[in-house]
Amino acid sequence: MHYEGMIIRPPSEAGSILLQVTLGCSHNKCTFCGTFRGKRFNIKKDDIIFQDIEFARENCRRQNRLFICDGDALIVPQKRLIAILERIRERLPWVERVGVYANTKSIKMKTDEQLRELKDLGVKIAYMGLESGDDVVLKDIRKGATAQKMIDQGRRVKAAGIKLSVTVLLGLGGRERSAVHAMETGRVLSAMDPDFVGALSLMLIPGTELHDAHEAGEFPILGPEEMLTELGQMIAATTLTDGLFHANHASNYLPIRARMPRDKEKTLELISQALQGNVPLKPEHMRAL
Fold first, then answer.
1. Ramachandran category for residue 217: left, alpha or beta (phi over 0 → left; psi -120 to 50 → alpha)
2. Is omega for the bond preceding 193 within 30 degrees of 0, making it cis?
3. For the segment 61-79, what is each residue's pLDDT rounded down to a tens digit?
4. Rounded-to-10 torsion of CA 24, 114, 78, 6
5. Which end of the chain has fewer CB atoms within 10 angstroms, the N or the C?
6. Cα 261 vs. chain centroid, distance in angstroms?
7. Residue 8 burial (CB < 10 Å; 0-12/13-18/19+)?
8. Which of 271, 273, 237 is closest to 256 using CA atoms?
9. Is 158 exposed, middle or buried (0-12, 13-18, 19+ CB in 10 A)?
10. pLDDT digit string (tens) for 218-227?
11. Virtual CA dihedral for 182, 219, 249, 161, nearest 10 degrees?
12. Main-chain dihedrals φ then ψ at residue 127, nearest 5 degrees
């Protein structure tokens, strides 16, 4: 594979073929994210992409899922993206699911018909970083989208028949906006009604603006109990038709995997018990991105 720079993928794509189609992220301005700093966004040449598909044909026959990297492959012009998906279908016929990262800008660039076309060609899941449902926090972190835009574009993905997986970040509102961040994020998640929610706990990355703000004493990091309180408030404010709410990332203090709405009350009780000291939390040295 012709990989360039750091390759990231969602935890659920750990066993997938990783096909790098773009370099970096088309937005690349979020104050908390250092993943693609130093990478100028561009789309790789088709001949390189097709060579990598041939590599996968020879070496990845046990993997029935494929994830298109880097940060925002959905922004690839429709004609080129269709050609890539058709090549995947032709050369890797055992691949049952293709996944992509998506943001509001890239989703909005696709018509409803184009989204359905991608679904028919194998794109079965899109991963969106909501981060927060609080417009103040979204503006502060330079997300480049409002909560309503997130809702609108997330709904369009689901309407096309593509599963939607949404990531949120605990602690992103700091101490002052913690409760608002939790409640508004729950409201937006309820309006989007994603198939999957992944809640990560904020860990600062050196070289990012948010890390610099923390070092300057301008942005506080929440402690374990504060993170858990925020998570409980967020879950309490979230209503999903039939979604899986994960908080079992390596960054989290308390692993949670809840089918909503079935497990909502049981999960809130687990968080309550943890806050009372009856359930052990992950030690700080074991947390990681």
1. left
2. no
3. 999 999 999 888 899 999 9
4. 20
5. C
6. 21
7. middle
8. 271
9. middle
10. 999 999 999 9
11. 50
12. -105, 120
CA dist 95 and 61 (Å) reads 9
CA 13 to chain centre: 12
Domain annotation for the chain: domains and CATH numbers:
11-286 (3.20.20.70)
Instruction: Quickly list DSSP for 146-183.
Output: -HHHHHHHHHHHHHTT-EEEEEEEETTTTTTTHHHHHH
- Tell me which H or E stretch contains 102: strand 97-102
C-alpha dihedral over 42, 47, 50, 54, to 10 degrees? Answer: -130
Using the Cα atoms of residue 125, residue 131, residue 134 and residue 138 in order, give the sign of their dihedral.
negative
Residues in the chain: 289
Yes or no: say if 31 and 208 are a contact pair by the CB < 8 Å rule.
yes
Q: What is the DSSP string of 42-93?
A: EEPPHHHHHHHHHHHHHH-TT--EEEEESTTGGGS-HHHHHHHHHHHHHH-T
Is pTM beyond 0.85? Reply is yes
Measured in degrees and rounded to the nearest 5, phi and psi for residue 130 equal -75, -45
The pLDDT value recorded for residue 289 is 66
Backbone angles phi, psi at 150, to 5 degrees: -60, -45
DSSP state of 223: P
163: β partners: 125
- In DSSP notation, 237-269 reads T---SSEEEE--STT-SS--EEEETTTHHHHHH
Q: Give dist(CA 28, CA 142) in Å, integer.
A: 9
Q: Assign 197 to helix, strand or coil.
A: strand
